[in-house]
Design a protein that fits this description.
- It contains eleven helices and 19 strands.
- Strands 1, 2, 8, 9, 10, 11, 17 and 18 form an eight-stranded mixed beta sheet that branches. Strands 6-5-13-14-15-12-16-19 form an eight-stranded mixed beta sheet. A three-stranded antiparallel beta sheet has the order 3-7-4.
- The longest helix has 28 residues.
- Bound molecules: P-hydroxybenzoic acid.
């Protein structure tokens, strides 16, 4: 089998890349280890930057994001029992949309299949070969057990933080920048009405909490916990006590309801450099991971493939590798902006196991400065709603 671009992974990066390439008449095949049903049911975060939504709409896959998603013109930072609104529309002239990642994936998968794309779900034993040659290969076993060798002009490694692509780059050629945080997020899904029109990011003495939403009837909430915490050890009453005490102040209370999903999410920052090795190009979580505090994961994957699709278009239409050579350096600029923003939001809002009274008092000073100064709030608003896409 052959294709122009072999894509490993049917997540946001892989699907969007295939979608953008198709618009340039470039052929791709996507190889994915999970089943379609699993991808479409896996719950992830749900904040889309303005630029991500604009791109979905302009390329014909944004209709449901607009009609079923919700536009948010601001968020609240809450500390010392009081809420402080960051007005995105006023400060940055941009907004974000709450629309879950798996819904974006459903829309992209449907659009790709409708255009006749070849997506191999349920593939096994995926490995990459000859990536420094002109004819790299994705070898895998098809869902029906057939061994396949997919010969490509270029391979895009879009297989997420635990995929095989980045490990194909020899250790001697790769730098792994990694940071683990000494806490995780305890996440729940709840059948309850909204407690707030906008997302609430809370700093409290007991630790961070985030009040988010999915639909008018289903809410998503998180609170900082030990990364080794077992979610099943917690009774519903204990979860509500913890959440209520973190957001308490001024009589504010969360609307409680039936908890129907729970889990602990690790918090990590990671970047692999370079993002290119021979004819292998990494995009999305395969190349970098951010902690969820800045809601940047999916958006960063989309930003990568915008740059990559343009580079591939130039490569296939002119034969020049100039833009392919520039892909990593170009994409990595935004990657490090997002790394900084995600680290900053995380550090500002969480309590650290070894923090001193000085550290906590300093955090409160920082939160006060960010929410009361126009320059501070504008920085947060611009970063959260997303810097303009490079297109
Ligand atoms: C979510 O709704 O799951 C969510 C929202 C904002 C974040 C992270 C997760 O920063």
């Amino acid at each position: 089998m052959r294709t122009q671009v072999g894509i490993v992974g049917a997540g946001p990066a892989g699907l969007m890349l295939s979608h953008l390439l198709a618009a340039h008449g470039i052929d791709s095949v996507i190889v994915e280890t999970r089943e379609r049903s699993e991808i479409e049911a896996t719950i992830r975060a749900g904040v889309l930057e303005q630029g991500t939504v604009d791109l979905l709409v302009e390329t014909g896959v944004g209709a449901r994001a607009i009609t079923e998603g919700a536009k948010h013109d601001g968020v609240q930072l809450r500390f010392q029992g009081e809420g402080h609104r960051i007005d995105f529309a006023k400060l940055a002239g941009r907004s974000v949309w709450l629309y879950p990642q798996h819904e974006v994936l459903k829309d992209l998968i449907a659009a790709r299949l409708e255009q006749g794309a070849d997506i191999r779900f349920g593939a096994r034993d995926v490995s990459l070969r000859d990536v420094t040659s002109d004819a790299p290969v994705i070898a895998f076993t098809d869902a029906d057990g057939t061994p396949v060798e997919l010969r490509c002009d270029v391979i895009a490694g879009c297989d997420g933080s635990s995929g095989v692509s980045k490990w194909t780059i020899p250790e001697s050629e790769r730098t792994d920048y990694f940071r683990a945080y000494p806490f995780g997020w305890f996440g729940i899904l709840v059948e309850a009405p909204r407690s707030s029109e906008e997302l609430i990011y809370t700093h409290s003495e007991r630790g961070f909490a985030l009040i988010s939403t999915r639909t008018p009837q289903v809410q998503r909430m998180y609170f900082q916990c030990d990364p080794e915490e077992n979610a099943d050890d917690w009774s519903d009453d204990r979860i509500w006590d913890e959440l209520q005490s973190r957001v308490a102040g001024g009589g504010f209370r969360l609307a409680e309801g039936r908890i129907f999903d729970r889990g602990v999410i690790p918090m990590r920052s990671y970047v692999c450099e370079p993002m290119r090795y021979g004819r292998l190009l990494l995009a999305g979580d395969a190349a970098h991971t951010v902690p969820p505090t800045g809601a940047k994961g999916l958006n960063l994957a989309i930003a990568d493939v915008v740059v990559l699709a343009r580079a591939l278009d130039s490569f296939f239409s002119t034969g020049s590798t100039e833009l392919l050579d520039a892909y990593g350096p170009t994409a990595s600029r935004r990657v490090w902006w997002a790394q900084h923003f995600s680290w900053w939001m995380t550090s500002m809002l969480h309590t650290h196991p070894d923090s001193t009274p000085f550290d906590v008092r300093r955090q409160l000073g920082e939160l006060d400065l960010v929410t009361s100064s126009t320059a501070g709030a504008t920085h947060l608003a611009q970063a959260y709603t997303g810097w303009p896409l490079d297109r």
